Amino acid sequence: QYKFRDLTIEELKDVNKTYPNFTFSMNTYTFKDGSQKDLLNFSGTVPVKYGSFYNIPIHLWILDSHPFAPPICFLKPTVNMAISVGKHVDAHGRIYLPYLQNWSHPKSTVIGLIKEMIAKFEEELPLYSLSSSDAARQSELLSYIAKITEGETDMKSKSKIGGGKTEGCFNKITVVGAGDLGIACVLAVAAKGTADKVVLLDLSEGAAKGGTMDFEIFALPNVEISKDFSASADSKVVVLTVNSLGNAQTYLDVIQSNVDLFRGIIPAISHYSQNTVLLVASHPVEVMTYVSWKLSAFPKSRVIGVGANLDTERFQYILTNLLKAQVLAKDAWIIGEQGEDKVPSWTSCNVVANQTEAMAARNSREKVANRAMEVLKGKGQRSWSVGLSVADLTDSILKDKRKVHSVSTLAKGCCSINSEVFLSLPCILGTNGVIEMVKLEEDPLVQEKLQSSAGSINDLQQQLKL
């Protein structure tokens, strides 16, 4: 069952040498969505110095995509121990560490994880001793925790909604990243009402704060906040909004920092939602969509970026409502790169009697398009506006609308582009992502600009370490 069996075995041999007290076994683990898998796991104690030395009992589960996905980690307290909920441990004993969030093979190892675990536990001891009377009251809680850590969660207690469908059958969307953009996406998607459940995957270190804390205070129906990748299981769409906030000095360093962040996210997301559509909103969207495609190994149709969807909707609105050019608006698109290098284009043109009329019609259209682009330049892309665009795209995917959107898709083969780059192009979207790319009107100037964008993006991608 393990995709990288030899790598996994070699690493666990190293763990056994370093921590000979650990015991290894194969048991069934039950994920939050009720799915089950037989997984390698081990338990034992790690030495932690907190004034005196303490042996802290832990239990780690190794996913079948290891070493490209991090282990699932728990404390395993005895009857006379209680969990001290803190920055790195929740009430059920689940362990959260920066090392897990930033997991990236081959840099990340189980030995390195345990070393960080020890270091964090020495800053904040995760367990404390109970008196004999407290220990008796603790036994019931320990029984529940044991069910979680041993993969025996009672699924019979889960309620059924919508004619007996279980949770995994619903239209579920996961938003990865709890920054302003992630929160805006959750609010917009929830307001749209298309999704039966929206999961906000908060990968920030420590307890919920800021917007996520407010989500917990003012609970929204069908919205769940989690730090656990397994909460994303069986999502129909996963929206990626995370951006690294490292101390990078150059533009290339900033992008590489984002790539490193995605290496710890995409394999885990792909593991839990193997049939999902990845919708990338992280920056720069063209490069990060390419990175997501490479790391997930998904078909190109199921990895798309938000691209110029927002700009296109605005462009068509300006043409229709401000410039009163309704006829032009229905065939008008913003394509190419997000930002200053975006290009207006058309998917068809009116048939005219002769070349002179055709030239006049083209010149008239270009003048209107230039006026619309000037208006468009004054419109920024704030978190809430991108969130609305994301909700628009997820609505088309979940409802299988077959609606045309300008989204970042693999552009190889279009406009004589031969490199593997993602550019925004008009695409028909449905349940499985991109169904078909809509043919653009042939325009040498537009093709030249797209080829230029493709060349600069490809040069940048060649410098990245995937």
From TrEMBL:
Gene3D superfamilies attached to this UniProt entry: Lactate dehydrogenase/glycoside hydrolase, family 4, C-terminal, NAD(P)-binding Rossmann-like Domain, Ubiquitin Conjugating Enzyme
GO BP annotation list: lactate metabolic process; protein transport
Family annotation (Pfam families): Ldh_1_C, Ldh_1_N, UEV
PROSITE patterns associated with the record: UEV
A molecular function GO annotation: L-lactate dehydrogenase (NAD+) activity
Domain UEV: 1-131
Reaction(s) catalysed by this chain's protein: (S)-lactate + NAD(+) = pyruvate + NADH + H(+)
Name of the protein described by the UniProt record: UEVLD enzyme
Gene name of the encoded protein: Uevld
